[in-house]
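Bug report

Summary: structure tokens for NADP-dependent oxidoreductase domain-containing protein differ between web form and batch submission.
Environment: batch mode, default settings.
Steps: 1) Submit the sequence below via batch. 2) Compare with the web form result.

Sequence submitted:
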Amino acid sequence: MLATDPPWKSSSEYRQFSNRLKPTWKVMEALVESGLVRAIGVSNFSVRQIEELLQFTNIVPAVNQVELHPFWRQDELVKFSQLKGIHVLAHTPLGVPVSTKGMSDSGSGSEDEPGTPRITFRRSK
């Protein structure tokens, strides 16, 4: 079970999310304690958000699912998570459409950037 962080556009949206985080997490902890789930985690949490969560939690998140790939490494988040015992589960879109020449929608740069392995798929007939 994951607590997901929706993107926000203002500080008031962040405060609303922050105010909902504690009761939501406490309910998720109760699910672990009752044996209904084995582990709980978060999705798309930043270092700041994890720090905020750890201030009141009894159960450390087992996982933080985030977008992570060679063009968006998030080294600080990965290192922080490892120090806190939180597994980082990477996800990345495959086949991101190209919006401008040489730039993907994620702003990750050219697909043929030097040093980046190229993955190709073959179709059998």
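Above is the batch result. After comparison, the two runs are identical; trailing whitespace caused the diff. The longest strand covers residues 63-67. Residues 50 and 81 are 9 Å apart (CA to CA).
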